[in-house]
Amino acid sequence: MTEYTSYDLVEWGQPFEKRSNDLPTPAGSEVLIRVTAAGLCHSDLHVQKGFMDLGEEGRLTFAERGAQLPMTFGHEIAGLVEAIGPDVKDMRVDQQVLVFPWIGCGTCEACLEDRESDCAAMRIIGLKQRGGFATHCLIEHEKFLVDIDGLEAADVVPHACSGITVYNALEKMGALRDGEWMAIMGCGGLGMNAVAIARALGITNVIAIDIDNDKLETALEMGAAKTLNAGCDDAVSQLQEMSKGRLMGVIDTFGGASTGRIAVRALAKTGRYIVVGQAGGDFKMPQVWLPQKAMTVRGSHVGNSPQLRAIIEMVRAGKIRQMPIERRPLSGINQAVEDLKAGRVSGRIVFQPET
Ligand SMILES: [Zn+2]
Ligand SMILES: [Zn+2]
Question: Where does the pLDDT of residue 49 fall: very low under 50, low under 70, confident under 90, or very high at 90 and above?
Fold first, then answer.
């Protein structure tokens, strides 16, 4: 075989197109993966649109951020090693691997401390370099691969983005004391994993928030203690009541003006509001609350390679409840995008490329 298939974005805002490409031969420490599972993330939808909503500041386009089309998206990638470069030491053909896609510049302070997600010059797989919506994917170095032999690729593939994103946010939120509560806003792929990983880290007082009762039902099955449909008028007072005035952390996987508004109002003194979702817009809050409530408003961007390895260890130890996975053929990518946009997906859509 000398060619492989990918589904690429050729024009911003347009559907993905099927394309044929020359199959690369790995050089140096490169590894060629035959993709068996590729998760569809909300951020793929944001990028397809071509811009982020910055509220009063206008728009941030991905072209401005250095993204170029055509591009193969897909940053949650698992597969089998098909070929290795001559300098690869620890990978073997047919090994099942998960890709760490948040590759940093490799030389800045953040990268040297394995905080790739804090690097200002990331070379993200599926945005700056070809990703997993394809039958094959070339990874630039074996160190970006995590062994997942013996695990189900489609089940664990979302951890490469949604898993480490919420794990990173939970670390930034910090520990809760007895009787303290946290809330997770948005029960899509990120939110479901946030509930599961919070539980795996020993946090039991979790309130899941969404506007879809079916998703809230699933969040309960994933281990949330309580749920709140935020479609009501009194979400703030309900949250304060549910947490007995001790809501100390909110992880916002939606990240819009509506969720920000509720979070900063419901949090108790010294509460931490951690935003990971990128729905966009801008929320307003009385600035005096920052000192008066000694509040932290903090962002967290994806996650780091040690966190991915830690999560896979927790999966192997049976500590992380499995979120719902919808397996679909990669050729159905454009329908899948529409379904995710319309909120018709519980958990994660994972593509399985046809060979
Ligand atoms: Zn993602
Ligand atoms: Zn860097």
Answer: very high
Instruction: Find the 103 Cα to ligand 1 centroid distance in Å.
Output: 14
* DSSP-based three-state secondary structure for 316: helix
Domains, in order of start, for the chain: 3-159+303-352 (3.90.180.10), 163-299 (3.40.50.720)
DSSP three-state, residue 306: helix
Distance between CA atoms of residues 355 and 352, nearest Å: 9
| 295-311 pLDDT tens trace | 999 999 999 999 999 99
Can you tell me the mean pLDDT for 168-186? 97
Yes or no: say if 184 and 162 are a contact pair by the CB < 8 Å rule.
no
User: Which ligand ends up closest to the CA of 111?
Assistant: 2
Q: What single-letter DSSP state applies at residue 315?
A: H
List C-alpha distances in Å: 173 to 11, 105, 249, 280, 311: 38, 26, 6, 21, 17
Q: How far is the CA of 113 from the centre of ligand 2 (A)?
A: 9
As a whole number, the mean pLDDT across the chain is 96
> Which whole-number Å values give the CA distances from 198 to 14, 50, 90, 273, in the listed order?
37, 32, 32, 15
The Cα 210–Cα 353 span in angstroms is: 31
pLDDT of residue 344: 87
On whether the CB atoms of residues 301 and 190 are closer than 8 A, the answer is no
Average pLDDT over residues 210-234: 96
**Cα 104 to ligand 2 centre (Å):** 5
**Could you report the per-residue pLDDT of 85-134, keeping only the tens digit for each?**
999 999 999 999 999 999 999 999 999 999 999 999 999 999 999 999 99
**What is the Å distance from ligand 2's center to 304 Cα?**
12
Q: How far is the CA of 110 from the centre of ligand 2 (A)?
A: 6
